[in-house]
Amino acid sequence: MAQERKIALLVDAENVSHHRIDQVMAAVKNNLGGLVTVKRIYADWTKPNLSAWKAVLQKYAFLPIQQYSFVSGKNSSDFALVIDAMDLLFQNDIDVFYIVSSDSDFTRLAMRIRESGKVVIGMGEKKHTRIFCYGLQ
After folding, report:
1. Were 120 and a residue from 34, 108, 110, 129 both cysteine, which residue would form a disulfide, CB within 3.0 to 4.6 Å?
2. Which of 101, 110, 99 is nearest to 136 (CA)?
3. Model-level pTM?
């Protein structure tokens, strides 16, 4: 029996709408198969505009990662996601990384993970019309 792939799902909640998470979860389930062993979602959860994410966190058992925005316009949550992704990469327990965000800040991260022989799937919203998915295999 083949060993099941281990998947990390890392979500940048400040750049993806909570309305899209059902699509994201369906795509993860249907795309490569495997076991989602890590589900983390990053944001400054003190911001009132993110309160709608609470139901999503409970429904899908995401671990919310709090990253305060000490300075307006900075990518604090993005850095936290990158650090966690690199930690997971070097622990060598994850086979597939899903990075969910609607900005291109994670392109170099995806390339670096791929250089280590892992599968990377990027997901996000394109002009707020639909979810898109691209893979680097």
Report:
1. 110
2. 110
3. 0.87
Listed in sequence order, the residues at least 6 apart from 74 whose beta carbon sits closer than 8 Å to its beta carbon are none
Q: What is the pLDDT of residue 118?
A: 95
Q: Which two tokens stand for residue 128?
A: 């707020």
pLDDT for residue 30 is more than 50: yes
Give me the DSSP letters along the chain: -PPPPEEEEEEETTSS-GGGHHHHHHHHHHHT--EEEEEEEEE-TTSGGGTTHHHHHHHHT-EEEE---SSTT--HHHHHHHHHHHHHHHHT--SEEEEE-SSGGGHHHHHHHHHTT-EEEEEEEETTTEEEEEEE-
